[in-house]
């Protein structure tokens, strides 16, 4: 449930006239008195490189909708999927505010949201488009109440990366891996797969992780049963996946059996390694394109091991509020019990929107990268 009344600021419908934003008049609202009509936001008007992300100071503040709230953001998460939207790899209607992961406090509440116990001042995290901004309109069904003892920066980090790692390690493998069996996870020195490596261990899997030499300290802190440390591509922080014969090492570690699941967010550079590392009736879970999109390959490549392949996305594993909250509750429980160690790498001011994307795309991050929003 949401925070207790002692931690909330509540204003009833009588205070609606104090809102400077032009919210709909068809139903009463509960809101802070200081919501401006325009706001600061990082906007994409033409797709392109990181500098296509332009910070504007007079973008219209979103209107409150029935069944929703307005969140005053303190943090926005930067994720690789945001770079795919910015480049046009995953097309969106232009112009759009970047981001789809945020955290902050509730600034305005519709009647329907108020009836669910949501109040102005509640600390929340969420995943909807348009989080690279001072304010975001969020359906109440998408809100995650942030419990005591979990910081908003960590809670924001949880919403995309944490939930993604959760479904990858609990559901996307379709139960083709069991406790005590081997799982290969690429890029455990980065954001999402730091979570995934730890969650896989919590699920009872034996984990082989890959990471670059520059992120070996992070990889070693995650409890992997085997860590394959790779050279870096000259001039970058990216792993050189040709610097070690990963498939041979995987087969050596697993006594020739291979891994029942491979979790791969790297893409083009690792697809052959991932398929080659599979055990009989293992599953290749391809969830990202950090090195480029996975090229098409003939399904006959899977016949040698009767292997499976899936290309999942988060929305299909949070199909309703019950599933969303169930996943979040387990993650927040692990965080409170200190079973998960979440690394927030750095927080760029929103004014440095392009720099945040450049940092992530250069492979420099050793954890979650955020925007701090004033």
From TrEMBL:
CDD domains documented for this protein: QOR2 (cd05286)
An annotated Gene Ontology molecular function: mRNA 3'-UTR AU-rich region binding
Gene3D superfamilies: Medium-chain alcohol dehydrogenases, catalytic domain, NAD(P)-binding Rossmann-like Domain
Keyword hit for NADP: yes
InterPro entries: ADH-like_C, ADH-like_N, ER, GroES-like_sf, NAD(P)-bd_dom_sf, QOR-like
GO cellular component, one term: cytosol
Keyword annotations from UniProtKB, A to Z: NADP, Oxidoreductase
Record domain Enoyl reductase (ER): where: 48-371
EC number(s) stated in the UniProt entry for this protein: 1.6.5.2
Record PANTHER family: QUINONE OXIDOREDUCTASE PIG3-RELATED (PTHR48106), QUINONE OXIDOREDUCTASE-RELATED (PTHR48106:SF13)
Protein name according to UniProt: Quinone oxidoreductase
């Amino acid at each position: 449930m949401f925070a207790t009344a002692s931690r909330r600021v509540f204003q009833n419908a009588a205070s609606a006239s104090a809102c400077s934003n032009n919210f709909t008049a068809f139903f009463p609202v509960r809101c802070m008195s200081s919501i401006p009509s325009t706001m600061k936001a990082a906007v994409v008007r033409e797709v392109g490189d990181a500098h296509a992300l332009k910070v504007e100071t007079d973008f219209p503040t979103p209107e409150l909708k029935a069944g929703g709230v307005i969140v005053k953001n303190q943090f926005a998460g930067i994720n690789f999927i945001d770079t795919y939207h910015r480049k046009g790899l995953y097309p969106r209607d232009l112009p759009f505010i970047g981001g789809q992961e945020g955290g902050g406090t509730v600034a305005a509440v519709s009647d329907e949201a108020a009836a669910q116990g949501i109040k102005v001042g509640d600390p929340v995290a969420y995943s909807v488009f348009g989080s690279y901004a001072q304010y975001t309109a969020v359906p109440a069904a998408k809100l995650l109440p942030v419990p005591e003892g979990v910081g908003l920066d960590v809670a924001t980090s949880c919403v995309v990366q944490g939930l993604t790692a959760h479904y990858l390690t609990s559901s996307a493998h379709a139960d083709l891996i069991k406790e005590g069996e081997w799982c290969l996870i690429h890029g455990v020195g980065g954001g999402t797969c730091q979570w995934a490596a730890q969650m896989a261990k919590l699920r009872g899997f034996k984990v082989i992780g890959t990471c670059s030499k520059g992120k070996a300290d992070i990889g070693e802190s995650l409890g992997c049963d085997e860590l394959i440390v790779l050279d870096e591509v000259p001039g970058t922080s990216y792993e050189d996946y040709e610097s070690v014969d990963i498939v041979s090492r995987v087969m050596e570690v697993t006594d020739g059996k291979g891994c029942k699941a491979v979790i791969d967010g790297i893409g083009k550079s690792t697809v052959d390694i991932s398929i080659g590392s599979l055990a009989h009736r293992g599953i290749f879970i391809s969830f990202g394109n950090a090195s480029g999109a996975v090229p098409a390959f003939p399904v006959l490549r899977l016949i040698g091991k009767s292997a499976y392949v899936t290309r999942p996305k988060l929305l299909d594993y949070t199909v309703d509020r019950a599933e969303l909250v169930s996943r979040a509750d387990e993650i927040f429980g692990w965080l409170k019990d200190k079973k998960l160690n979440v690394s927030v790498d750095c927080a760029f001011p929103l004014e440095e929107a392009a720099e945040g994307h450049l940092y992530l795309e250069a492979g420099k991050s050793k954890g979650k990268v955020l925007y701090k929003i004033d």
